[in-house]
């Protein structure tokens, strides 16, 4: 009898323990918000704290950026021994998804990366990011290249600080070009001739991973710019129209390139990483990608010097009769840092962001060959030539058109990705492409 | 101790923890999904109640219906292929030489995660370096297909690894069912002069009819909510050519910030699965179940 009572008692006790553990666990998750890494205790700031940082540069594919981040964190922890920085790294697409899930559950990291404009609008409206204006007025005053923080500002307040500034050149393999007596193209017609020549020789002209549709969007955006001039795309997206004949003509040109077999076989089923490996293996002659790839052709120790020497870049060629200029670029600020509104240690997080941006400006240039959004003094450091050239291109750029998918709101952006895939896969006509893009923009989501 | 176990309260106490877990992890989210489906919600800002608007939009959403079509195509094909699996299991259960080895071969894909399988088949389907196109080229095919980039064939290309992935599972179920048929029944039939074909079709298959029903439900519901391999291999692309219901829900909710709409799709998916299960049970209902003894 006694035993029975004991058993029942033990069971009840166990149950209570389980239930209470569950209860307190979920409570922590909700109230702690972004600072859930802070050991769950109520220590006042200034003592030992842990900041959570999420970034999108895994060691394998972006090792240059990855190394710089590690170094900055180390330096920060040495300067602020009471702070520990916990990092979580996810690859681009996973990162975007996780960010959404975390903010839906009110669990954003203290510091993380975001994209500008349309991408971050829901977060700002949902009051997820904190304003970083005090940093911009204080420590970081006049440190940024003019205009780079604009994309992160909503209603006069800035919610993110960019770390990268990128433009999209077309990289090409000089060895393949010289073997076939080719010169970098100045005009679209020359580009088409190159494509023909290379196809005749059995070399893949251009590699493109259009399963990640933003890569194909680069090509479309450039065609729009070269045909319709530097402001056409911005204005079309801002005014929710997509009827300008140049927009349709650009779509036609894109399909013409597809018809010429300009792009690697099966490009609509290849991810950007798969496509990139075609270029890195010397199988494809050209590859249009942001300047974040430059470390692979300059400083990255994992890439053989022999290959780096083979790679050059050219500006996207002009179109005959087009309104665009060869010094117009597609690009813009890359990712930027945000501080979570729900962070328990907001001041420390801001402090870290300020430190990060300044250190990033130094290290990214000298160690990694990444173009930062902060001003660079090139006179004092020795830099790889391609990097200097691109920095100069950036300084003399007439216009940098921000990526179309970043400019658009989430639903329209998603639709833009689908439509670009359809356009390059020849599943829609250029007219249908423009019509559907306009419908998506007009929906206003 | 026996007395303890006969006490209803004690039984309830034992059941309670897992009951709570199931309610919290499975049933509560279902209810919440239905609730979110009535909202306009981007997942971040406050929700706004809009009644059945999401469902009305859903009914007019062409892309959704094409994803429903793809899902149903998968469901039908998977069900048809159960016949193949059953035949394999029948042969394997018939004491053939090397049955053990074959069983293991069929089971291997089950050991791999979907992502690993997807990566493997991505390599196989690669347009230039893939083994499949290499093979076709050696056979003299000039224009090799772009397996995952061509909207006309991408569904078929995805279906092969999915079939391969689940073959072992169904073969194992059928194999176990066939093995559980008492040998005396087969022996009796053989003595009566039944041919192996007759034994298989007239005796073995009817005897496992309950198992067959279960596998049909599993295959249909599994296909309707299929997601992982498609997400990794094509992400529903190119331009939605391989979009299924679950991937469309994912795209709407996580890419398009339309959690309300995504939830509506999820709830609709649940309803379709329930209806499908009910229809299958009705279609396959038999009055008298066959017993071994």
UniProtKB/TrEMBL annotation, chain A:
InterPro entries: Bact_solute-bd_prot1, SBP. It comes from the Bacteria. Residues 1-21 form the signal peptide. The keyword Hydrolase does not apply. SUPFAM superfamilies: Periplasmic binding protein-like II (SSF53850). Keywords: Signal. This is Extracellular solute-binding protein. It comes from Cohnella herbarum.
UniProtKB/TrEMBL annotation, chain B:
The chain crosses the membrane at residues 12-38, 72-93, 105-122, 152-177, 211-233, 259-280. It is a multi-pass membrane protein. One of its GO terms (biological process) is transmembrane transport. It comes from the Bacteria. Keywords: Cell membrane, Membrane, Transmembrane, Transmembrane helix, Transport. InterPro entries: ABC_transporter_permease, MetI-like, MetI-like_sf. Residues 68-280 form the ABC transmembrane type-1 domain. Its main location: membrane. GO terms for cellular component: plasma membrane. It is found in: Cell membrane. Belongs to the binding-protein-dependent transport system permease family. This is Sugar ABC transporter permease. It comes from Cohnella herbarum.
